[in-house]
Amino acid sequence: MTCYYMSGFGNEFASEDPRCPGSLPKGQNNPQVCPYGLYAEQLSGSAFTCPRSSNKRSWLYRILPSVCHKPLISIPQGNLSHNWDEVSPDPNQMRWLPFKFSESSEKKVDFVEGLNTLCGAGDGRTRNGIAIHIYICNTSMKNKYYKTYYIIFHNFIGYLLPSVPQKGNLLVTTEFGKLLVEPNEICIIQQGMHFSVEVFGETRGYILEVFGAHFELPDLGPIGANGLANPRDFMVPVACYEDQQFAACFSVISKYQGKLFSAEQDFSPFNVVAWHGNYTPYKYNLDNFMVINGVAFDHADPSIFTVLTAKSTSPGVAIADFVIFPPRWGVADHTFRPPYYHRNCMSEFMGLIKGHYEAKEENFLPGGGSLHSIMTPHGPDADCFKKASEAELKPERIAEGMMAFMFESSFSMAVTKWGLETCNCLDKSYTKCWQPLKSCFNPKWKPIDKQTWYGRYC
Ligand SMILES: O=C(O)Cc1cc(O)ccc1O
Ligand SMILES: [Fe+2]
């Protein structure tokens, strides 16, 4: 399937389905009668009164307005949870082996049924917090659409894992048009946008849900006007309507205050013929990230790899940063090149899309994850420490064929019962990877080679 896109980040886009030329009203947003007998509907992504620089809204011209649905009724929510008190807090370093696909391929699970909450904090009611979900599914949503409702499912980042590359694509239908999300791409669906997911076999990925902030490109400061994720590499779908008023029934599922609800309606929610605005879904291919890194000495902090940030109200502190670890050159002189040992005032959830992560020799695998909570110490495992301490420091490719990512958050996240028990993937031996580290301390140590220290300490 070919999907068509416009490019840019947060632009004022405008799109008409080519089947209805002139469907976008000219010169005004809500004419007395819209072209083609369409209804005008505004979708606000920010308070009406937000400053212009942060104001987000789009105008949708649709066959029927969204309001024409039957009442919303509570439905089972499977492993989705916003109860952060299900199990006692556990500050230990945690790692999950690849989250398991269903044992029987006979059992059909769609994207909504396959959502499992792993960890999170805060809630949608106060619009402050995050949730990390893992989706594991093998069948497309049929006549069933997933709508985010008012406060929730605010932002969504989905990853496909190349453990099943030929089957791993997601075809995401939205009110704004269709996005084909391939492995190594991310897709952002913003608060309140209807979407539906088609899959092509076993599919697994990660979702970061952010309550109360939009993703932005990080400021570049002294980097200059270009670099990291460049705005032109973000892809926005073009209008593509469905007019299925004769089809029997559609159910639109809403996630509202942490719970799922469903409403029946007798027309497709993807009935938007034309739209314009700066509040849209989008996708981004991580291969387009322009990597910047140290070229002299020392290991730069991972913030240098920030793709998108959802800012808190405290300057420089993110509700969540989306950070990647892409393939790059390692050239730092007289430096321990892998990530340093550290304790962080932010929580770090990491996942692996493909390849082998530089700080762990084993068991951090594609489709798995790790969580290092606020101030929980972590860093390279013992094998990695030994290798990197003894390595000859010539220029080398780091992370070739690899894509790891981190959701770094100022929230202290709680793990759900699904994450600790039901998923049955928790790697109980994780902390053993640091046990072989021995003290190398030698109080009589003298610099052997002045060159090693470039004269600074000798
Ligand atoms: O813990 C991790 O592996 C992520 C990470 C990588 C890095 O290069 C520096 C700090 C950091 O937290
Ligand atoms: Fe870390």
From TrEMBL:
Give the domain of life.
Eukaryota
* Gene Ontology annotations for the cellular component aspect, listed alphabetically: cytoplasm
The pathway it acts in is: Amino-acid degradation; L-phenylalanine degradation; acetoacetate and fumarate from L-phenylalanine: step 4/6
The entry's family comment says: Belongs to the homogentisate dioxygenase family.
**Which annotated residues bind Fe cation?**
342, 348, 378
Q: Which NCBIfam families does the entry link to?
A: hmgA
Its EC top class is oxidoreductase
Cross-referenced SUPFAM superfamilies: RmlC-like cupins (SSF51182)
Q: Where is the active site?
A: 299
The organism is: Callorhinchus milii
State a single Pfam family of this protein.
Answer: HgmA_N
**Family annotation (PANTHER family):** HOMOGENTISATE 1,2-DIOXYGENASE (PTHR11056:SF0)
Spell out the subunit comment.
Answer: Homohexamer arranged as a dimer of trimers.
Q: Which UniProt keywords apply?
A: Dioxygenase, Iron, Metal-binding, Oxidoreductase, Phenylalanine catabolism, Tyrosine catabolism
Which residues take part in binding homogentisate?
A: 357, 378
What is the name of this protein?
A: Homogentisate 1,2-dioxygenase
GO terms of biological process kind:
L-phenylalanine catabolic process; L-tyrosine catabolic process
Query: From the UniProt record, which GO molecular function terms apply?
Result: homogentisate 1,2-dioxygenase activity; metal ion binding
Question: Where's the Homogentisate 1,2-dioxygenase N-terminal domain?
Answer: 5-286
Catalytic reaction(s) noted: homogentisate + O2 = 4-maleylacetoacetate + H(+)
The Enzyme Commission number assigned here is 1.13.11.5
Cofactor(s) annotated in UniProt:
Fe cation
What function does this protein fulfil? Catalyzes the conversion of homogentisate to maleylacetoacetate.
**Residues annotated as domain Homogentisate 1,2-dioxygenase C-terminal:** 288-440
